[in-house]
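Task: sequence design from structure.
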């Protein structure tokens, strides 16, 4: 939030509700959290394609992509990770005002950071999806070798190895990617989203 009292929000002629009615669905943020390699981005992008094919306004905010632009100046230190989540949350909130279903795929390992995201976006527009998978399976999926480098000490502050991951306490949906196929996960997530955004 800006500390400058001379800056005030401007409300235009078109409301969020007007946009949602035109597009035939509510906007909301579906926040995918889980270890690297758990399947967050894969599921989010597959769901995005299906919803897009159904003519819905939908967009994936992917951790790697955001790090190339909006948050390219940030490190992976704890304070920088928090700022990363704060920026993403503020942008996602703007997309919600534009009647877009936002699929945010970020490790976001700390409970406090995810709570901050919920508070920025608004409790009524925020749904937490816990994409869970055993660490050893995530490591097996790691084609880039980041887990191996983290275990060798070549990468610092790597979630699950040298930095903590705090699992959600009460997620809105749990997806166990070691126990179901990608198609099953995508179907469950899509059905959950459609239930939440129907008008």
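Answer:
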């Amino acid at each position: 939030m800006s500390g400058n009292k001379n800056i005030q929000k401007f409300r235009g002629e078109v409301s969020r509700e007007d946009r949602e009615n035109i597009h035939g669905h509510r906007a909301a943020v579906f926040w995918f959290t889980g270890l690297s390699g758990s399947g967050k981005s894969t599921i989010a992008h597959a769901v995005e394609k299906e919803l897009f094919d159904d003519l819905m306004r939908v967009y994936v905010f992917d951790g790697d992509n955001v790090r190339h632009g909006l948050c390219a100046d940030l490190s992976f230190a704890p304070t920088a990770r928090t700022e990363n989540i704060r920026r993403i949350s503020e942008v996602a909130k703007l997309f919600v005002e534009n009647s877009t279903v936002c699929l945010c795929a970020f490790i976001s390992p700390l409970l406090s950071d995810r709570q901050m995201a919920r508070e920025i976006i608004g409790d009524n527009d925020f749904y937490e999806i816990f994409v869970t998978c055993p660490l050893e399976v995530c490591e097996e999926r790691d084609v880039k070798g980041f887990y191996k480098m983290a275990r060798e000490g070549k990468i610092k502050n790597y979630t699950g190895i040298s930095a903590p991951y705090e699992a959600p306490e009460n997620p809105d949906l749990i997806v166990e990617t070691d126990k179901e196929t990608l198609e099953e996960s995508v179907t469950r997530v899509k059905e959950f989203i459609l239930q939440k955004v129907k008008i």
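The beta strands are 28-33, 58-62, 101-105, 126-132, 173-176.
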